[in-house]
Amino acid sequence: MVGMSEYGEGETRQDMQQYHESLAFGTSFISLMFLGFAMGYYLGKYFFQLPDIQCLILSLVIGILTIILETVLYIVKVEKIEAAERKKEKNAKLLKTD
Questions:
Q1: Nearest to residue 55, comparing CAs of 35, 66, 67, 40?
Q2: Which of 28, 58, 61, 96 is the most exposed place for a label (fewest CB within 10 A)?
Q3: Whether the Cβ atoms of residue 51 and residue 71 lie closer than 8 Å to each other
Q4: CA torsion through residues 6, 12, 15, 20, sign
Q5: Widest CA span of the chain, in angstroms?
Q6: CB atoms < 10 A from the CB of 60, how many?
Q7: What is the pTM of this model?
Q8: Whole-angstrom distance, CA of residue 71 vs CA of residue 54
Q9: Bigger pLDDT: 53 or 81?
Q10: In contact, 50 and 60? CB cutoff 8 Å
């Protein structure tokens, strides 16, 4: 049967959902990193009229800030997911004791 594995259908769906989320995060991370570096360069080149070396430095600064922002957002997302899982486990424990 399609979607079945040795772990059952639910495990396969959960694995595919995690794969989809990881792929979406990776794609957005790479594209935002590229756009951050490109935006920094073109911002320096055309908006501030800086020489090429300073445009590259601005590109690095904005690119690194983008990476830091993405990392912080990922940490917040993971913490939120873990908090929801802890809450779900706590509620399940309370229901078992009743």
A1: 40
A2: 96
A3: no
A4: positive
A5: 71
A6: 14
A7: 0.70
A8: 26
A9: 53
A10: no
